[in-house]
Amino acid sequence: MAKYTANDYEREFAAFLGIPHAFAFWKGRVALYAILKTLGISEGDEVILPGYTCVMNVNPIMYLGARPIYVDIDPVTYNMDASLIEARITSRTRAIIAQHTYGYPAPLDEILAIANRHQLPVLEDCCLALGARYKGRLVGTIGTAGYFSSQWNKPYTTGIGGLAITSNTELALKIEDLC
Ligand SMILES: *Cc1c(COP(=O)(O)O)cnc(C)c1O
Fold first, then answer.
1. In the predicted model, what is the mean pLDDT of residues 76-96?
2. Mean predicted lDDT score pLDDT of the chain
3. Which of 4, 100, 116, 166 could cross-link with 129 by S-S, CB 3.0 to 4.6 Å?
4. pLDDT at 51 over 80
């Protein structure tokens, strides 16, 4: 039997989600780092994310010299309150992280509308949301890119691990280069 390789894993993960590109990393936070870096996020840039998050979402932003900008959550859904995002956007904003907290999809229609208005990429944090759907579509496949964790305490685990996915060919080629 042929050896099962990391490339096979990436291909099967992408196929499961119906998306062309998946890249396996050491952790979800490393997948996020790779996405942020290939988007060119650096010193002085700002990245919007929910105030109720994982420190592992904050570290990759800070390693690049960028600043995390927090948006408060909706106390009912634990997801980002989309009505509070626009007030946090500045000329230095470079991306919005849409975290699907505890596997419940963030309000993507509202988040994408704001992001499109400001021409910002939306990065879906699917670390707890593999297989979750937003209005019928699998999360991670809706924004510019998505990332997953398969750490030991996640709904799906490989012990340690993470993946980045995107349908954007240009971004995928840059992530491949970075790998
Ligand atoms: C676990 C988790 C991460 C980070 O994943 P790691 O694989 O531990 O780096 C990011 N965001 C959320 C919501 C998580 O639950």
1. 98
2. 97
3. 100
4. yes
**Distance between CA atoms of residues 174 and 30, nearest Å:** 15
Quick check: is 154 catalytic?
yes
Ligand 1 geometric centre to CA of 2 (Å): 32
Is 29's C-beta closer than 6 angstroms to any atom of ligand 1?
A: yes
Q: Is 114 in the pocket of ligand 1 (CB under 6 A)?
A: no
Q: Ligand 1 centre from 33 Cα, in Å?
A: 12
CA 61 to the chain's CA centroid: 12
